[in-house]
Amino acid sequence: MSTATVDPPVVTRVARSELRRALRAAASIKAKAVHLTLGDTLHVDAYTPDVAIHTTVEGAGGNGETFIVGRVQLAAVLTHCDGMLALHIEGGRLIVTSPPSRFSLAPSEDAILVGKYTHDFAGGSLGDPVAVIDAAVLTEALRRALPHAGSDYTRPLLCVVALAPRRGTIAATDSYRLAIVQYGDDQGPSDEAPVLLQRDGAASIRTLLAKKLGPVSIRERAAHITVTFDDIEWSLLRVTGKYPNYLSLLPDDDQYGATLVIDRDDLLAGARAAADIAEHNEPVVLVTGETTQVHCGHGPNSMTRELASAAKTGKPLDAIGVNPRFLSEVCASAPAERLTMRFISPRRPMVVGAGRDTYLLMPIRLNV
What we know:
Layout: E1 12-15, H1 16-27, E2 33-37, E3 41-47, E4 51-60, E5 66-70, H2 71-78, E6 84-90, E7 93-98, E8 101-105, H3 111-120, E9 131-134, H4 135-145, E10 160-164, E11 169-173, E12 177-182, E13 195-198, H5 199-209, E14 215-220, E15 224-229, E16 232-237, E17 258-263, H6 264-277, E18 284-288, E19 292-298, E20 301-306, E21 311-314, E22 317-322, H7 324-333, E23 338-343, E24 350-354, E25 357-361
Antiparallel strand pairs: 1-4, 1-6, 2-3, 2-5, 3-4, 4-16, 6-7, 7-8, 9-14, 10-11, 10-13, 11-12, 12-25, 14-15, 15-16, 17-21, 17-23, 18-19, 18-22, 19-20, 23-24, 24-25
């Protein structure tokens, strides 16, 4: 009498620390599920409607089987594991073994959506890079630009950062403010068509590449932009349409009537205090009379702070109203200790120079 034998499962062995790193990458785009391909190289893919991220992890064993598992569920399992893990698929479930424990995970309920996103991001040949930027340079430029990008996804063209590689700039605007961050040498034409990086993808790049060194390659495909660093690859769906000609928003030099030079930290402290006091949509008033002050509010909920470091030149300018949060974010983004603020009138944009960066803030009309 013969006894049937059951082949042992094909197991992929991988370091817990490496799999956790891949899950952190998936978390940076807020993906609900990860698509695992088991093998000598473990492939971990995660998707949202606009961004995909692919991470490779060195493993051992495996036969190319795939499994879609909830990201949070797998991350919870890893908190109870140590050292090397053994992964295999058995009975339609993902088995994670870390002696003396064995965990069994069901497929993610988001498996159908992952299949759709996989199709959306597939295809298209990769050409030569349109930009190669050091990771430290890129993340610092994104730090200064991202706070000023739009977050209203009914206006997708504003929910991006606009990279102009030849000009060495990254721009961002939400129509109320504008940041032009100069990260490289300006060697391109003023009408250079920018590469548009979707905001959430750019934020993930900044998060994962913080404190990293090495080249980041940016390539264009028919349907998306691919950004690669080491063993991580982002795919950002293209945003269609023409990005605003932001350089045309900057006034000519001869239009300015007044200039204010001020310590960044002095202005930041005043703007943050005003932002804490201000009610919804209430402006902070920048007063440039005999002394320069920031003022916000009326009656019991108000504040006034004198800006002792300010030095004003040019024509008189009584007061200008600006959004206190926007002003705070300009100060926090600025790479220079001294800011140069230039004014035309209380009803025209205020332009802030910070080193080689330029920021523009639209004014808020004051009820006076």
